[in-house]
Every structure is written in structure tokens, then in C-alpha cells.
Amino acid sequence: LIEAAKAMDEVFWMQAYPGNRDSLLASLDSEAAKRYVMINYGPWDRLDGNAPFLPGVGPKPLGANLYPRGATPEAIRSAADLYPERDLLGLYTVVRRDARGNFEGIPYHVAFQEQHQRAAGLLRQAAAFAQDAGLKAYLELRADALETGDYQPSDLAWMDMKTNPLDVVIGPIETYEDQLMGFKAAHEAYVLLKDPEWSGRLQRYAELLPELQRGLPVDSTYKTETPGTDADLGAYDVLYVGGDSNAGSKTIAINLPNDEEVQLAKGSRRLQLKNAMRAKFDRILRPITENLIVEEQQANVTFEAFFGNTMFHEVAHGLGIKNTISGTGTVREALQDRASALEEGKADVLGLYMVESLIERGEWTEAELNDHYVTFVASIFRSIRFGASSAHGRANLVRFNYFIEKGAIVQEEDGRWRVVIEEMENAVESLARDILTLQGDGDYDATAAFAGTYGEITPALTASLDGLAAAGIPVDVVFEQGVDVLGLGTPEASGE
Ligand code: ZN
User: Which end of the chain has fewer CB atoms < 10 Å from its terminal CB, N or C?
Assistant: First the structure.
């Protein structure tokens, strides 16, 4: 599976970087520069809005290497209207120019045939070893998908598998790399080991959603929908990550599949990546805490609370409402480009509300409420460092300023921050109510005004963030990974 994941990594390099990777690396003397190129899959800093970090390198093309250089969205759209059979706007095609300069859409399984076939062969070999029937069926169908470009049968099979101890997410999946048009999926792979105990506990919390929905601190008209209890939640350790998901920032939770027809038929699965969270806690959140949180509250920042907050964030996406109360359609449609940041803000604050409720009921005993509050605030600094260009970054900025306004966070004279525990519950409730109301009303202007009021980076915050950078605290982690790291040796017939 790891060898198959490496094939996706090769493809992602070709999608992300218009030049040749090996020539780029060979042109560099500095080991640090080479390493940073590998981390970013190119000479643009993914944690700094894709700013070039090597001399002489221009801005990153918006379409990465998924479209011909200089092609405009208008030109591609009009060609797509004239020649729909070329599938120029497809999720699984790369756009190139033919000999006469016309746009053509080349299916991924053709454009990246060598890597797709190699990965397919490896998945079939793995399927032969699989003892879990669901996993076996999925691996075989995924191999077929890589050869034909028809991913839906394997997505359905992925949702059907429930008892597999190993999992693999592989293929062209997310579209964030395509900043030109947002159509093209980038290749990625996760090889995962399921944690059965935590997965069982997550499932249990999902079952409590309808009850928690009724208790939401908002007018009853904003909570008329009943959340599904069939959410598929699991906790996993990451064994290997390749391609898009290994580029720049590292994910701690996945929600798939993206195919809306599969979602309607089978729902979706949320995967929590425990060891990735642990790495971020140890290497980033702990040092941030020591830098920015008052000394007597530092012990309240715990991994258990961090894991809980992150896990309940995912579960809390299921709370609230998906459709506006005026019956005009979905919240997402009404709030457009504002929708993601508000939805992430909702999940964070309702995650905390869930913790409060579950601790009250004795359903959650891993950490104390104070730990969850202080860990939550320390995490705000971690997330804001990903920048205002990310939905999570924006959501964190809003809640930081909101909590200050409500008196739930105060800054001491030495520059460290204190969580005012007795104000937190009210602040959480009030923010939850504001967000749920904005979503329910589907009011775009009010949402923009809310983000404007609370979305400002203050000098005090800038000084705190500068302090973290000066202390050399990383914004994100990189993974040491591979068969050697796992102590598995080198497989035979790996094609290398
Ligand atoms: Zn989320």
C-alpha cells in the first residue's frame, strides 16, 4: 500500500509543479532549500500563501500544472462550451494543448498511465493478502478505478467496508490545488491503521447528536432539523501520507468521499488521525502554551483535551441546520464564500458545547472542562498561524476577538494570555447562538459584517504571533515515514 501511495506522490509532483522535480533539486546547493522544496512539492511556500522562496522563481501559476501555462478560465470555459466531449472541466482530466494549440482534456488514467497502472497492480497484490472481505473488495475496485477513471464503484465500496483494520485513501481526490478553476482533483494517498477502541467511542458520541441538538443554546426555529445518528466516525493512526495530503500543512481529520451521489447513498466517513494530532500537540501546541499562556494554566493544556476538542469538532459538524429557516435553500448556497469559515467556526464552538454537555452527563471523563477551555484557547494561536486565507484560520481569528470582547480571554502585563474560566461558558453559548442564527437566516451581509467586526488582527495578537516565530516554534510538522521507519524492510518487486 505504501508503494502504491508513492505512485500517487509522483503524480502529485507532476500536477503541482510545471517543471522537472529532479532538475530543480539538482540546481540547489543548500540542503535546507532542497528539503523545503520537497516539503512544499515545488518552490512555493504553501504555508505562506504560495509565495516563492527561491531566487528567480515567479509566482505559482494558479492552475499549477493542471492547465497549460497562461490559459485563462474564460478561454477554457468557451472551449468547453464548444467541445463538451473534450471534458476540459472534468474532475479527472488534465488540460493540455494539442499540436494545433487547441485545448484537450487528457484523462488522468491516460496522462499518468504508468503510475496509475503500477498503483493498480500493487492494490491488487494487497487485495490478495487482505483478510477482511470489505477491504479486499474495495482494493480491487480501486485498482479498476485507477485504470478506467470511474471512481464511484470504489467510493461506494469504501463506505461499505466497516470492519477493516487497515484503510487506504488513494487516487485523485481534493481540488484545492486547482486555484484557477477549482475543478481538477489532485492525487494523494493515506495508509491508515484503525483504532477500534476510539472508533467505537466516537460512534457512541454520534448517537447522542439528536439529544444534543435539542439542547443547543438557540431559538427553537434554528434547530428544527434532526441530525443523523448514522455518521461513520473513526480514529486512525497514519502510517504513510503521499501527494496532496503530504504537501505543506498536515491534516488531522479527513471527511470523505467527496462524490455527492455516494454521500446521498451511503453518507460520508470522518477519520480522525490520532498520531498526527499527537505530533502537532508535542511539537507545536506545547511550546505555544509555554510561550503564551499564563504559567498557572499551562498544565491545563493536555493532549486528551486537544484530542477531544478536535474529535468533537468533527462530530459537531452534524449539529445545527443545513437549510436556512426561510426555506430558500441551503446555508452553503446562501453564504457562498463566507460559508466555510462560519461552518468551521460553528463546529469548533459546538464541539466545546458538546464537551460541556457530555462532562455534565458523565459521558466524557478524559479531561476536565477547564482543560478543554485552556487547550481550546491555546489552539487558537496554533490555527491563526495558518493565515487568514484558510477557513480554519479565519474562524479562529473571529473567535479570539469574540472571546476577548466577552471577557473570556485577557492579556496579562507580561504579554501572556489568561483564560477567564468563569466567563467561558457564557462566551461559548453566545458565540454558538450568533453563528447558528447567521446560518439559519442565511444572511450573507450580516455574516460579512460579523467577520469584519471580529476578523481583525490586533497589534497585541501580532506581537504574540511574532514571539512564536522568534522562538522558532514550527507552524506545522513533517512526517518521518516509510517502510524503514515502520521497520518493515523493503518489499520485493516494488518496481524500484
Ligand atoms: Zn471542520
Answer: C
Checking phi first, is residue 111 left (phi over 0); if not, alpha (psi -120 to 50) or beta? alpha
pLDDT, one tens digit per residue, over 352-398 is 999 999 999 999 999 999 999 999 999 999 999 887 667 778 888 99
Q: Residue 114 C-alpha to ligand 1 middle, in angstroms? A: 35
Closest-CA residue to 67 (of 229, 192, 178, 211): 178
**How many A from CA of 60 to the centre of ligand 1?**
27
CA of 388 to the centre of ligand 1 (A): 16
Please tell me the distance from the alpha carbon of residue 232 to that of residue 155, in angstroms, as a whole number.
14
The answer to whether 428 touches 356, Cβ cutoff 8 Å, is yes
What would the grid cell of residue 22 be?
Answer: 529532479
pTM given for the model: 0.89
pLDDT surpasses 50 at 349? yes
CB–CB of 293/301 below 8 Å? yes
Cα(475) to centroid of ligand 1, in Å? 19
Cα dihedral sign, 104-108-110-111: positive
Q: Cα separation of 421 and 4, whole Å?
A: 49
CA of 313 to the centre of ligand 1 (A): 6
Q: Which residue bears the cell 504560495?
A: 50
Which among 135, 246, 128, 140 is positioned nearest to 194, based on CA atoms?
Answer: 135
**Residue whose C-alpha cell is 429557516:** 325
pLDDT of residue 489: 73
Q: Encode pLDDT of 51-93 as tens digits.
A: 999 999 999 999 999 999 999 999 999 999 999 999 999 999 9
- Mean pLDDT for 196-214 is 86
